[in-house]
Design the sequence.
């Protein structure tokens, strides 16, 4: 069976079911007139032997006719019936007392409990939220403090490094200057020593040379003064 | 009644039910009485089971029905008409709403198909109960003289008009109200039942006639029957609501004449 046929069969089945269910007022619309009339006829037949006997007796026929006409009559729906008031009123009163005693307190209690629980949960959620916000703020503050501390440490380290650098540089400069001074002094001393040595040697050589050239002893002091003057001149030059 | 080949019963017969038990006594029980008992039992069952499942966080089933009904009566009826001090009438108004609703809704229950309030007994009884209640509340809150004065001589009306207004208000408040309340419910349910019976008989007759009757029933009368059934569900709920809210309006008016 294809899907389409199944759908059509289902629709027809549903329609048929609805037709039966919804058409029930036709059967449930009160006492039927036909049924009432048949009931009257059967009743007459049972009581008088046959309907033919009733038909022949004018009085009985009129009674049956009247009874059948009664089938067309019914109480007015606008006139309240005492039995309906009693049953309806009793049902309403029982229901009302049940609602006062049990129904409303139970249902309203459940609604109130739920509302209280929701309110309580919301309060708890608010508290948890504010706690979380406080913890977050604490953490952020701690983080900010740590950052600040770290920056301070870096700054301090940097300042210390700068200071150390300056001290080392100054010390190095001092040492360099000292070394340079000492070197200069050493150089000067060495130079003076060299000059003195040179002066002695040169004057000895010069004197010796001059003695050889001129064959006579020169005035040694005068010659030495002359050589020294020459060497000084050379040293200056 | 033979109308256009339709065998339509006399209207009175549509609302006349044979006695089932206790015949010829004041406690004769027929379909109308059974319908009221049905309304009572169903409402008790709903609230009983709803109360038994009170720990459910998310209401479902009968608990949802009961709580929705209570919430509806409280928010849409009591708070709108009387105010917070009307909550003491919640049990009465909720009972009234559910009782009328379930004795109306039988109109569309298959094979039952009769609204008990299409009989005048309970609409009139309830309306008279409401009449007693709102007059009692008026006297209780305003005193007898104050209640009569405020009811018959509404404030804000030019004095000259009291000649016309006072009799109208008197008749309206003390005589017409219970009957208008009762007849509104009764007439609506009578009309609904007649509509459903009419289309049901039409459908059954057309279907039974065969031939073109099948088409007529399926295309015309039966769709109308379905439509009217849905409409009558709406009417059943609406009439229960109207009866309840008018009761609350009358009580509220008696308690707070300034409104």
Sequence:
């Amino acid at each position: 069976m294809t899907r389409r046929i199944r759908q059509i069969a289902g629709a027809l089945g549903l329609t048929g079911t609805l037709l039966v269910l919804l058409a029930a007022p036709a059967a449930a619309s009160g006492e039927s007139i036909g049924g009432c009339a048949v009931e009257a006829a059967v009743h007459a037949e049972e009581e008088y032997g046959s309907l033919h006997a009733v038909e022949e007796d004018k009085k009985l026929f009129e009674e049956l006719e009247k009874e059948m006409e009664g089938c067309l009559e019914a109480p007015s729906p606008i006139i309240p019936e005492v039995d309906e008031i009693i049953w309806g009123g009793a049902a309403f009163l029982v229901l009302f007392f049940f609602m006062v005693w049990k129904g409303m307190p139970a249902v309203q209690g459940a609604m109130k409990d739920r509302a209280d629980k929701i309110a309580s949960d919301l309060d708890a959620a608010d508290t948890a939220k504010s706690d979380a916000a406080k913890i977050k703020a604490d953490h952020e503050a701690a983080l900010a403090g740590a950052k600040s501390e770290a920056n301070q440490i870096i700054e301090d380290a940097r300042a210390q490094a700068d200071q150390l650098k300056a001290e080392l540089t100054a010390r190095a400069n001092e040492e360099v200057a000292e070394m340079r001074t000492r070197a200069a002094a050493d150089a000067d001393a060495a130079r003076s020593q060299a000059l003195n040595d040179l002066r002695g040697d040169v004057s000895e050589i010069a004197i010796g040379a001059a003695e050889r050239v001129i064959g006579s002893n020169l005035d040694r002091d005068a010659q030495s003064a002359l050589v020294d003057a020459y060497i000084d001149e050379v040293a200056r030059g | 009644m033979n109308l256009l080949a339709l065998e339509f019963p006399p209207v009175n017969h549509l609302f006349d039910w044979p006695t089932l038990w206790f015949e010829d006594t004041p406690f004769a029980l027929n379909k109308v009485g059974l319908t009221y008992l049905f309304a009572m039992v169903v409402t008790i069952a709903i609230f009983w089971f709803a109360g038994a499942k009170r720990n459910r966080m998310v209401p479902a089933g009968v608990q949802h029905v009961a709580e929705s009904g209570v919430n509806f009566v409280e928010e849409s009826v009591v708070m709108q008409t009387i105010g917070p001090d009307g909550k003491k009438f919640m049990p009465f108004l909720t009972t009234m709403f559910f009782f009328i609703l379930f004795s109306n809704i039988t109109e569309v229950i298959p094979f039952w198909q009769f609204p008990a309030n299409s009989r005048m007994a309970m609409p009139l009884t309830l309306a008279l109960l409401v009449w007693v209640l709102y007059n009692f509340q008026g006297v209780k809150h305003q005193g007898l003289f104050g209640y009569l004065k405020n009811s018959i001589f509404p404030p804000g009306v030019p004095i000259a008009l009291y000649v016309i207004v006072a009799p109208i208000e008197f008749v309206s408040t003390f005589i017409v109200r219970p009957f208008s309340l009762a007849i509104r419910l009764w007439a609506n349910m009578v009309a609904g039942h007649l509509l459903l019976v009419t289309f049901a008989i039409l459908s059954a007759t057309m279907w039974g006639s065969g031939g073109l009757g099948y088409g007529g029933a399926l295309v015309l009368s039966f769709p109308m029957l379905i439509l009217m059934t849905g409409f009558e569900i709406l009417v059943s709920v609406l009439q229960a609501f109207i009866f309840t809210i008018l009761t609350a309006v009358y009580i509220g008016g008696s308690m707070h004449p300034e409104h």
Summary: Residues 118 and 124 of chain A are 10 Å apart (CA to CA). Chain A has seven helices and no strands. The mean pLDDT of chain A is 80.
